[in-house]
C-alpha cells in the first residue's frame, strides 16, 4: 500500500515531464489502460448509468487536477484535490446517507485546510484555485458513482468501463489542442498508464487482501505527501508553511472521516448479533 501511494503521488510529476496538455495526457493514459485491460479481460462491460458517469468524472477530475498543477505548485493542487473524499460525504448526504457528527467535524477541518491553501499558500492564482477545486468536486463525484457501481460490477471491470468511457470523452481534445507527441511524451503517457494505473491498481487490490479497507484508505492520504516530496525533488517546488499547515488539516479531515466510517461499520455489524440475543431470551437458540 505504501508503494501504491508513492506511485500515485508521482503522477503529477510524470505529467509535468510529458509536456502534453492536460486533456491530451489524460487521453493517452486512459486509452492505453483501456486497451491493455480489454485485451487481458477479453471483454467489455459497462452496464449502468452510474458506471458511465464515473468514467466521465474520472476524465474530468484528472484533467482539472493536472491543469491546476500548471498554474500552482503541485503540493497545493494535490492537497486541495484530496478534499474530494470529504466532499463525497456531502454528496452522499443528499443521496440519503445521514452524515455523522464526526464526518461533520472532518468536513469542517478539511474546509479550514482548503481555505488556508486557497487563500494563503504561495503562488496560487484564482484560475488555478478554480481548477483545483473542480478537480476535488469531480473526484468526489467519481467516488460516489464508483461506490454505487461497485455493487453491480467487479472492480477490474469497472476500471475497464471507466477508462473506456474516459477515452471516448477525451478523444475530441486531440483535435482541439496543438501538441507534439514526442517519444518522451509518449513514454510518460505509457508510464502513467502501465505504472501509475494498471500496476498501482494491481498492488491496491493485492493490498486489500492483506490489510483492512480502512487502513488502506488512511494510508492513501500519504499520496499528497509523496506528491509534495517528488515536486520538491524533481521540480524544485518547496511547499510553503501555509501549504504544509493547510494540507495537514485536509489529511486530518480525511483520517477523521475514515475513522467515522470504520466506527459506523462496526456498529452496523453488531446490530444483528444484539437482535439475535434479544430473540434468544424468548426462544431456545440452536448452536
Task: Reconstruct the topology from this structure.
Layout: H1 2-9, H2 11-18, H3 22-41, H4 49-69, H5 74-81, H6 84-94, H7 101-120, H8 126-150, H9 155-170, H10 173-176, H11 183-208, H12 213-219, H13 223-235, H14 241-280
Helix pairs in contact: 1-11, 1-13, 2-11, 3-4, 3-9, 3-11, 4-8, 4-9, 5-8, 5-13, 5-14, 6-7, 6-8, 7-14
Summary?
The chain has 287 residues and is mainly alpha-helical.
Question: Which labels suit this protein?
Answer:
287 residues; mainly alpha; disordered C terminus
Structural overview:
- The protein is an all-alpha fold and 287 residues long.
- It has one domain (2-280).
- It is 79% helix and 0% strand.
- The protein is built from 14 helices and no strands.
- It has helices at 2-9, 11-18, 22-41, 49-69, 74-81, 84-94, 101-120, 126-150, 155-170, 173-176, 183-208, 213-219, 223-235, 241-280.
- Helix 3 crosses helix 11.
- The longest helix has 40 residues, at 241-280.
- It is globular, with a radius of gyration of 20 Å.
- 45% of the residues are buried.
- The model is unreliable at 274-287 (pLDDT under 50).
Oligomer: single chain
Q: Mind summarizing the main beta sheet? A: none
Encode the helix/strand succession as letters.
HHHHHHHHHHHHHH
* Nearest-integer average pLDDT: 84
Report the strand count: 0
Q: Helix share of residues?
A: over 70%
